[in-house]
Design goal:
single chain; alpha+beta; two-stranded antiparallel sheet; 2 helices; 19% helix; 38% strand; globular
Length: 129
């Protein structure tokens, strides 16, 4: 296999640092293991962020998510770890990570974690007629 799972997140320079804009990434094939039973857990991760100087490179992000496949972790822990790792790599103005886990034992779990730079002010939304 030419690529392997990796926790290393690569970045590239934001091509438009003078504008606030949102990047949305959906990761529909996330898998990890339940730390209690060892059974697989499946989720879709939704990442939304307003970059500052750096953007996350998508192939490295794919390999990053792949690295959780055989790791036992609670839903809350992995969602917050993903946010922490992405924030450490990119230092965005704002980032929200939403993890929607598939049903297990009749229960669905959704975990939302956010980061905002202390000095960043979100632009006001524009309402068009």
């Amino acid at each position: 296999m030419s690529t392997q799972p990796s926790k290393a997140l690569e970045t590239f320079d934001n091509p438009q640092t003078l504008r606030n804009y949102t990047i949305r990434i959906d990761v529909p094939e996330f898998t990890c293991l339940c730390p209690k039973t060892g059974q697989p857990d499946f989720a879709t991760f939704h990442i939304e962020y307003v970059p500052d100087r750096l953007c996350v490179e998508l192939k490295s992000l794919k390999l990053y998510f792949w690295s959780y496949r055989d790791e036992g972790t609670f839903h809350e822990a992995v969602t917050n770890r993903v946010l922490d790792d992405l924030v450490a790599a990119t230092s965005p103005n704002f980032m929200r990570v939403t993890a929607r886990f598939n049903v297990r034992g009749g229960l669905y779990t959704t975990v939302v974690a956010e980061h905002r730079k202390a000095d960043w002010v979100a632009p006001e939304p524009v309402a068009l007629p």
